[in-house]
Amino acid sequence: MTIHLSILIFWPLLLAVLAGFSPRGVAPFIALLGSLIPLVYAALLIIDYDTAKGGLQYVTDDKWIPDLGIRYSLGVDGLNLWLVGLTALLFTASSLWNVLQPPLARAKLFSVHFGIAESAVLGAFLAQDLALFVLFFDLMLVPFYFLLGQWGGPERVQAAVKMVIYTLVGSLLMLAGAVAVAVLSSRGGTPDFSLAFLRENLLSDNTQKLLFVAFALAFLIKMPAFPFHGWMPDAYRNMPLPVLAVFSGVVSKVAAYGFLRIVLPLFPAAAHDWQVIMLILAICSILYGSILAFTQTNLRLILGFSSVAQLGFIVLGIFALDPSARGAQGALLQAVNHGLVVAPLFLIIVLLAARAGGSEDIRDMGGIAFRAPVLAALFMIVTLATLAMPGSANFVGEFLILIGVFNSKLALALIASVGVVLASVYALRMYIRSMHNRVGPAVTSFDLSLRDAVVIVPLVLAIVAFALFPQRAINAGAPAAQSVSHSASGAAR
Amino acid sequence: MIATTTAVKAPVIDWSAMSPIVALAGGACLVLMVGLLRSRFVRSQVTPFLTLVTLGVTAGLAVWQWGENVQIVERALAIDDLTLSLTMLFVAAGVGAVLMSWRSTAVVEAGEGEYYALLLTSILGMVVLVAAQNLVAVFVGFELLSIPLYVMCATHMRREHSLESGLKYLIIGSVGSATLLYGLALVYGATGSTDYAGIAAAAGDLTDDVLLLTGVALVVAGLAFKASVAPFHQWTPDVYEGAPTAVTAFMAVATKGAALGVFLRLFDVGLISLSTTWGPALAVLATVTIFVGNVGAIGQSSVKRLLAYSSVAQAGYMLAGVVVSTSWGVRATVFYLLVYAVMNLAAFAVILARERETGLGDHISALYGLGAERPLLAWPMTIAMLALAGIPATAGFFGKVYLIQAAVDNDYGWLGVMIVVGSAISLAYYLRVIAAVWMRSSSEAPARPLLPGTGRPAIAGGSEEAVEPVRPRVGVQVELAVVAIVCALATIFFGIYPDPLLNVAHDAGAALRSLV
User: Domain total for chain B?
Assistant: First the structure.
């Protein structure tokens, strides 16, 4: 029983409240402090986590609402360890960006919502109680609604409403599903939402199949995966880019993590039954996302649709359900990888737009590399990581995912591997059209300033470091991924 | 001599159990009398103060009687934890209404003493209604609750809409009362008893009895009018919009509580043996209500109308707790009612504050720019809307979780899904309010009122007195901000630590011993 994880979760919230009552100029710094401490904490957790022992560590488990069977239960294991680190890193990068860039309008309010967002995301990753998870998962949406609706682009209000309604339809169904799981599993007793209890008391196969749908829908909408991505283009077009960096980098990972933490362990039989459908959805996401990323000209949408494709890969890995759980391991690794590459890419869009007369359209860009070699080099590294160049951690992730699927469903794996090729097509197109080619009419290129480099260089270094040493994350995740994946593939036998 | 004294047996009166009722009745009389004094100060300041004192005493007595669970007046009234928990709710709504009415025009026009006395009488009726275990007592309570409200709706006498609201409520309410009375008569005719225990004993053998079932159907319709359950809800938006906002807030919170309280006791005690018959019927009614309320609210531009439709939808959610007819269902309903009261009071206090500040009435544009200009009003409004939508970290979330648990537990899983689908639809309009608060600027608001009837004279070309004097716009009114902020804080507090309310709901559920 430790208090560490509670501090990790609620520190950003606490400082967010503090920022709300502080003078305008100070608020962004308080917000930065609010995300910096969790980053330090997360780094210490990663160093201190006992990989050899495995399992849940730093467990906090207290009764919270006994009448409803909800416990305040948190814990770290191989599944969420690195995702927590990713969350803390991206939120820190984004709040550092906000401190260094020209001040925002209503900076105090922004800091409040930003802090709530970080607390909610961390809470969702660390929760070991189904109700607590649902609570944080739904809460996550509120600050992003305000951040999009108040600081977003021209169609921000409509985009925000669309995003909330889309994702909450899924989340609310999940809420009903979660209550049903707890009530039905307790078989007449007081319901119990703790994941440990629910894993021991599985439901009958038919009930699992129904409830699986409620959860899968919530997660697929949140990701978003094809065909539930209708809210994504509007939200991505209008969300302020520093917010979008964390939103795309982290929030979609909560959904992927939800499959590993909740769906596979609680509904193993259903996961096995729905496997092919989920794999087909994943392949549709990969192909559809890649093709649309190739046709879009707005950089935000290129990245948005590439995220759809990347998350398709992650779902593919999760539902590979191969005997040695390579797919699940790859998915876990890829979740961290995608977060690491997509966040700097969104921040780079800000820099590109500043050099292309404010436009985020690649038709207005071109030739930016000519006078911005450092920016071009950094952008190049991130782009290569995105397209899973051998040597990058993304390559390792996609490789593991594909091995997993090859071992379980050969035909589907062959189709999915087309996605790897498509990724290089859209990623290179994005890079070439913006950085090379003929110089665009409104382009005035200049190199990376120190102010921007302070944020982007560490993120790129993180990508490089992760590419060189992915083993630590894989080792931590392997046993957890295996136990999760085995419960589902074991249900088949 | 000795023989006569022994022959006259004085009835045993349990004064301690009856004390909350006595306090309310006494307070109402006192306030009415004090309101007759000439001094302006006494009328405008002392009467509301005395009203608050009466409510405070009632609450104190209710706390004192907690856990006693006694039946008084020949078992016609049950002063048990269910009654007392709902009494707390009525007191809270009453306190909110008094604070909101304190400086309003409506009260001055109606006469302070009368207004506050009517408010207390209405609360008295609600307490009797939820305590009633006898059909006669039900009807007495029902009328005692309704008649003062008909008057209070029309107290803003120089506004056409207020008069219209009162008249409409009177007519529709009377139809509801008549339906209820007819139903009660048929139930009595079929079972031969007005007592719930007697009805329960007799109803077991009468599950197919046409007379009884017709009676039950009419009772449902009569109560549905009061609880604004679809399709008997049509009066709700008009009356809510027209009535003075303080009265609207009181009606939305307290009347709803009383109507659902009587639903709980009548159906889960008196008619429990027929639960397989009325259960599915009420479940369908609840579903219809959820959809009608949520869809109806989407297009509204008056925030009071919007909240009226939202209250229809919320009645549907809570009816789900009645349908499941388990102790769990009672607990969930009581918990939701308590939570619902807090979140609605916060919203209405903000609406009233903006009505007085902007002169735009309750049009949604009155909320434009609130986030930038008045964060102390904007946050309560935001929290109230998020809570009504059932977003986590607010009490509304646990309210929904509890109701869904109760529904799933008794094989009404589909009703749980309906609650969820309804909540998803409801976001469309709750978010519109939040967007108006935070994402619009006050410069977008029109200069003149957009809604018809706001500030217009009741009679075109009428006498001087008929024209409402133009009141200067006022700044933040402390009492409204206090109501809004306290309720919003409570919403958040109970969203993080709901145990106190859960315990209250638990005791209330335990009071109905006929349930598992």
Answer: 1
